[in-house]
């Protein structure tokens, strides 16, 4: 099985705002999967906030955060884009873009003040996003008779594996998303607990996340 890293991603974007010495800092955050998507989002925010002094940005693309970009958009070098990017990196979030818009309040904040304000705006925006953690796994189809259903359901729950779907006919077919690191052990336990009577069929490698008790496959 190929190795796939876990990673936090934005499931639903959000926004947040802070004020520092009468300057407004408005963060808008969205999920993206390509550099083109990120650039398009940044341009859209610049168009929306066309009258602002600065629209600073940062984004991270890739399963292992391979592509990172940031822009100070006229703020002193290193006081906006990079600090914003550092927040995302520290949180372990990928496939994300953030734009922080600044409406100047008339008072200079200094280098340290700008760094704190831009980072604070990103943190405020993240509070209003839905963040999920994608996990690498495989889909598992389990076919069983009704007498073996209880044991299988108990074992899956014990292992923290969520059943995505159950079909009832002459027998029962369960569809589950299993984390990669649990696949071999789970197969052995299911085989042992049902004395080999349950039919197990491993399907494609997936990324999935638990969203309030519901499994989403990507």
UniProtKB/TrEMBL annotation:
Protein family membership: Belongs to the IMPACT family.
Boundaries of every UPF0029 domain copy: 143-197
GO terms of biological process kind: regulation of translational initiation
PROSITE patterns: UPF0029
Protein name as annotated: YigZ family protein
Domain called Impact N-terminal: residue spans: 21-125
GO cellular component: a single term: cytoplasm
Domain of life: Bacteria
Source species: Roseburia amylophila
């Amino acid at each position: 099985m190929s190795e796939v890293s876990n990673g936090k991603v934005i499931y639903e974007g959000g926004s947040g705002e802070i004020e520092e010495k009468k300057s407004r800092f408005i963060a808008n955050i969205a999920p993206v999967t390509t550099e083109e998507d990120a650039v398009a989002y940044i341009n859209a925010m610049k168009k929306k906030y066309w009258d602002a002094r600065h629209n600073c940005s940062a984004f991270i693309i890739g399963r292992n955060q391979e592509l990172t970009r940031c822009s100070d958009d006229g703020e002193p070098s290193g006081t906006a884009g990079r600090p914003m990017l550092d927040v995302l990196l520290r949180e372990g979030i990928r496939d994300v873009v953030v734009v922080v818009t600044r409406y100047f309040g008339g008072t200079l904040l200094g280098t340290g003040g700008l760094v704190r304000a831009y980072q604070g705006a990103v943190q405020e925006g993240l509070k209003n996003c839905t963040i999920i953690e994608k996990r690498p796994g495989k889909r598992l189809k389990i076919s069983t008779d009704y007498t073996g259903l209880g044991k299988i359901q108990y074992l899956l729950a014990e292992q923290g594996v969520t059943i995505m779907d159950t079909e009832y006919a002459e027998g029962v077919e369960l569809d589950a998303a299993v984390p990669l690191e649990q696949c071999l052990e789970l197969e052995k336990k299911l085989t042992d607990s049902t004395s080999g009577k349950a039919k197990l069929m491993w399907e494609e490698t997936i990324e999935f996340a638990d969203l309030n008790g519901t499994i989403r496959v990507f």
